[in-house]
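Reminder to self: keep the SMILES exactly as supplied, no canonicalising. Ligand is zinc ion.
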Amino acid sequence: MRGKFKEIFKHKKNKLKVLDVASVGDYIEYNLNDDGTGFINDIFERNNFLSRKAPKIKGALQRGERYEQIIVSNVDRIFIVCSIIQPEFNNKFVDRMIVAAESNNILPSIIINKTDLSENKIKKWQDLYKEIGYKVYLSSAVTMKGIEEITNDTKNITSVFWGYSGVGKSSLINAMYPEFNLKTGEISGYTNKGTHTTVTAKLINVDNNTFIADTPGIKEIDPYGLRKEDLSHYFSEFKEHLPFCRFNTCIHLHEPGCGVVNAVRNGKISSERYESYLNILSSIEDDMCFQVNTR
Ligand SMILES: Nc1nc2c(ncn2[C@@H]2O[C@H](COP(=O)(O)OP(=O)(O)O)[C@@H](O)[C@H]2O)c(=O)[nH]1
Ligand SMILES: [Mg+2]
Ligand SMILES: [Zn+2]
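Structure tokens returned for the bound complex:
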């Protein structure tokens, strides 16, 4: 990086606690040397980006301090890939990814892959997410079910395939575009380089307008920079019930006259989604506690 820009970045970095300078998907201005190396002169402002809190690594960060890790920038859609078995479906994990997408203003959709392995419970989760407004694809990289539909819906946009390790993200992209020949069946996407765990996505350039980011397997997601009073806005089906909360500061936990809690009781919000909400809410509170303790 060159002088002036480096200086600006240093200031930004201190303020925002971001980990990397540029991320996959960034538009940059650069100079290329003859040997293939280059300089980044500038990074253009991101339309949006997908991020999470960097995992805690012993000794690498100050006590409990968390950084923001940008996974991909300038994203049109996020495809949350999951399976019913091998690995088992984890709705709390799916909901964390949805919150990460929604809070960054990116449309999430869900791909239930490995449908060749088990019929069990597919419909339950498919219906739950369809009901609250998300598109759900059923797929198999083995039988090729759903591959054509996913190929069509990822045309002419930048999309991210995101999800737990081993669900078949790379296999799905290979099923769509065998020529990219992505590595599959890797045990873990973690690489410890000492300072932080890398989550480098691989951006595949299908054609001039079509980009697909394959991300390494992740094992934890903490959406970055959430405030507990905002969390309910990222649970799309909660929104219509918010005006019925007695207190406008309601975080839908123990407050009397809560529209969300009433909707859960009446079966208008599923208990699974509400439990996910509480789960994320409590992880936000943990961070707040940390800040208070260190003052
Ligand atoms: N039965 C079955 N196995 C699959 C399917 N998709 C991927 N796999 C297998 O699941 C393992 C993990 O796949 P991979 O694409 O590496 O998952 P990733 O970590 O999400 O990229 C590999 O052994 C794949 O062959 C599928 O649709 N059905
Ligand atoms: Mg992979
Ligand atoms: Zn409430």
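Points to follow up:
Helices lie at 3-16, 91-103, 122-131, 147-153, 169-176, 259-265, 271-294.
The chain has two domains: 47-214, 231-294.
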